Amino acid sequence: MYELLKDLGAWLVDGEQWTGPDGIGHRLAEHLQYSLLATLVAAAIALPIGLLIGHTGRGAFVAINLSSFGRALPTVGLVVLVFLASGLSMWPVYIALVALAVPSIVTNTYAGMTAVDAEVKDAARGQGMRAHQVLLQVELPLALPLIMTGLRLALIQVVATATIAAYVSFGGLGRYVFDGLAQRDLVQVLGGAVLVALVAVVLDLALSGLQRVLFRHRPAKSA
Amino acid sequence: MTIDWSWITDHRDDLTTLTLSHLQAALSAVALGLLISLPLAVLAHRVRPLRGLLLGLSNVLFTIPSIAVFVLLLPVSGLTRTTTVIGLTIYTLVVLLRNTVEGLDSVPARTKEAAKAMGTRPLRTLLTVELPLALPVIMAGVRIATVMSISLVSVATYIGDGGLGQLFTDGFQRNFPTPVIVGVVLTLLLALVADALLVALQYVLTPWTRRRKGA
To answer: Which positions fall inside the ABC transmembrane type-1 domain (chain A) (predicted)?
Structure first.
């Protein structure tokens, strides 16, 4: 085990490992591109849906069941399926990653919206606020912490799952995992896994930091 | 993309075997996950300093891609079912630990004080008051963990296990969509049925939540 860790350390700090088209730098950039683009597209689809369902209370059934469905959908199968249907392109990977991220964001947005106190909404309406004002100026800010949780969860899942791009011969950090598997090179597999985990942790910390900055004005909640 | 129905009828026995093996891996992982996370959750709930550590640690484990987890276990447990189950268990821990801690947190302090005032000992309070009241939140975690595990078993196909996931590799290698479609549909069905059964179980286990809804 000690030998393995030593080899892993050497693999990670080797300067040559970081440059070139197979280098960690390039793979890292690819991985970030897949993950961030997929999460952004997913957020663009999921946030309006979650807000609408939470605001109107209609379609709650959809929001709740969508999350189960999203969790149950086997990503490997989805990637292979879209791959067989569309041929060699990045489409399968992006479709699968977006499909993975949408449910987490919808459910958390919905949960955040329903957690807003009904009396607060009544008060806002009593002051003469219109529906869209209540939505954007009262419900949305109060629901933001849970919405951010959903985005963070989605991003972590997407970063971990973007590994799958390498399965259908694309890049990203998954290359090391799959190439290492094929070559029975455990150090490379381990290196890829460690890098993916690092990316996920760093992005999650960045988002939680952003969240803290955004909500600085609010008194700390005891819960 | 057309489905070759005769392939399905020809492989009925294989499909049954794969489905059962798939289910066995997922359920073992959830059971193991519960066994490990319950005591840890009680610990995290009672000992505040441990709480952040345990929850943080499980979060970090969650970020490691499942493919890598399975492969990293190879030197420990080899190309076996054990590797699949350990890998999946690690994933269930995140959800189960968090929900069980949150469930225990959600029990009102007053309720616990009432139990204490009636002379109930801490362990008994935990088993007869806190855990039952935390059950809805814990069950929510069990449902998520179960559905997630059922979906994740397929990933173990890279190390030669993976239940229905083997249909994905098979279809991918032969450029033949039918097994892939069948695999996806069966996985979704398994998850759906398991989730419905857990909802029914929770309904039976928590009669008091039913009465409250009527009020």
So the answer is: 32-207
